[in-house]
Amino acid sequence: MRESKDLEFKETITNSFLKTVSAFANYRNGKIIFGISDNGDIKGISNPVQACLDIENKINDSISPIPSYSLSIDENTQTITLNVKEGFFKPYFYKSKAYQRNDSATIEVDRIELNRLILEGQNMNFEDIPSKAQDLSFSVLEQKLKEILNIKDFSLDVLKTLELYRDSTGYNNAAQLLADKNDFPGIDSVRFGDNINILLDRETFSNESILNQYDNILKKFRTYYEYEEIKGSLRKKTELIPEEAFREAIANALVHRTWDINTHINVAMYNDKIEISSPGGLPKGVSEEVYKNGGISIPRNPIIASIFFQLHLIERFGTGIRRINEAYRENEKKPIYTIFNDMIQITLPVLQEENNLSDDENSVFSALKNSTLSTSDISKATQFSKSKVLSIIKKLVEQGYIEKKGSGRGTKYTAL
Fold first, then answer.
1. Displacement of CA 211 from its chain's centroid (Å)
2. Contact 259, 301 (CB under 8 A)
3. pLDDT under 70 in the chain at which residues?
4. Peptide bond into 279 cis (omega under 30)
5. Third-level CATH fold of 187-294+324-349
6. For the segment 177-200, what is each residue's pLDDT rounded down to a tens digit?
7. Nearest 5°: phi and psi at 223?
8. Among candidate residues 93, 99, 82, 107, the one with its CA nearest the CA of residue 7
9. What Cα–Cα distance (Å) separates residue 395 from each residue in 340, 358, 363, 377, 404?
10. What DSSP designation does 336 have?
11. Residues 242, 351: contact at Cβ < 8 Å?
12. pTM for this predicted structure
């Protein structure tokens, strides 16, 4: 057993554990076990009954508001387990500061994250906040609604129905994002040459309706990754990258990104791939495994997500990743999803009829088709040394042919 994002060891009872209580109450259920050293050695606590009273008093006197928690004693090891539940009345402060877990460490939240906690405690999202700009126009949104939903009369009542306007507070941030002009960052697109030092084209779509941003980046995609080929009397459109996959990735970025930081969505276009980087990690409540498998979706911006859904820019919530994967079903090289704490990156490779792997790479790739194997298993199947297997695996993961599953000694690989 080792420390993790939701588990911390404390050999003795000092006030430092109160930071972690704040972190668990703010973000996720967690436990602190007293009487265990950082490396996992069991030491025990003398007089654990009195220690429990001390812990309880420290929490009640120091954490505001008081979180929900429970204490239990292991009579065999004389250790104490403190279980802290994620609370509803965020943020939870210790000495006027709020904390979060970063892997197995506890750190103070920054100003942006504190604002998010405050909104969450009020059951609100950033898009719900009243917009600083109230003189907004919606010609782009109006045109879309008339074309797609056949709305005849575009009025303030329509905007109220879409949850973009309230009589008490006026327009919200979601309304400003959909307005013809806004104060938010947009999409920064770059077309590279043979390497990242060669910039062939760069264009930023910013301070305009996110519906316009969506349309404009799609036009640029078509310029570089679609062409028409005439064979005899037939004209055939060829896609170097599936347009459906690109549409879903861009819509996903606009709907799920964090809008409270001044950072663009980055679209990097290469000869062999497109990388779409969206600010903000996974929405709360969605694991990396669920996300990559195209499971349930919890939109970070539900108002915007609902409007994109009504305009048929996204399908039913939670199907975007599955649709991207389906677009590559016949292609050996698959999309890559890279998850960071503050960013999600989707890599869409160019379609290819055959892979361009070396013989050795093909041997490893073939061994992993329809199988999930460890490096030792791969080494046995291919008769390659483990060092050679590790070198090949690294390339195949980077290129989107295979996927890593698990970590440490339990790490295995499978073909995508």
1. 21
2. yes
3. 230-234, 295-297, 316-318, 353-355
4. no
5. Heat Shock Protein 90 (3.30.565)
6. 999 999 999 999 999 998 889 999
7. -65, -40
8. 82
9. 20, 11, 13, 18, 12
10. E
11. yes
12. 0.79
Q: What is the DSSP secondary-structure string of 11-32? A: SS--TTHHHHHHHHHHHS-EEE
Helix (H, G, I), strand (E, B) or coil at 316: coil
Which 3 state secondary structure label does DSSP give 373?
A: strand
Measure the CA–CA gap between 297 and 285, rounded to whole angstroms: 9
3-state SS of 309-338 is HHCCCCCCCCCHHHHHHHHCCCCCCCCEEE
Tokens 């329509």 belong to residue: 158
How confident is the model at residue 217, as a pLDDT?
A: 98
Burial grade of 265 (CB within 10 A; 0-12, 13-18, 19 or more): buried
In this predicted structure, what is the pLDDT of residue 383? 87
In three-state secondary structure terms, 251 is helix
Angle, CA of 225, 227 and 232, to the nearest 5°? 155
State CA 114 to chain mean position distance: 19
Q: What is the mean pLDDT of the chain?
A: 92
Token pair in block for residue 89 = 């009345």
Distance CA 276, CA 416 (A): 19
Largest pairwise CA distance in the chain: 90
Is-contact 26 86, C-beta < 8 A? yes
Topology (CATH) of 7-121? 3.30.950
Residues of the chain with CATH 3.30.950.30: 7-121
Q: Which residues contact 22 (CB under 8 A, 6 or more apart)?
A: 63, 92, 93, 94, 97, 98, 99
pLDDT in tens, 50-70: 999 999 999 999 999 999 999
Q: Are strands 30-34 and 7-10 parallel, antiparallel or unpaired?
A: parallel
**Position 330: which residue type?**
E
**According to CATH, where is 3.30.565.60 located in the chain?**
187-294+324-349
Q: At what angle do helices 375-382 and 386-398 cross, to 10 degrees?
A: 110
Rounded to whole angstroms, how far apart are CA atoms 13 and 19?
Answer: 13
Within 8 A by CB and 6+ apart from 201, the residues are 189, 190, 191
User: Which CATH number among 3.40.640.10, 3.40.1160.10, 3.30.470.20, 1.10.10.10 corresponds to the domain 359-415?
Assistant: 1.10.10.10
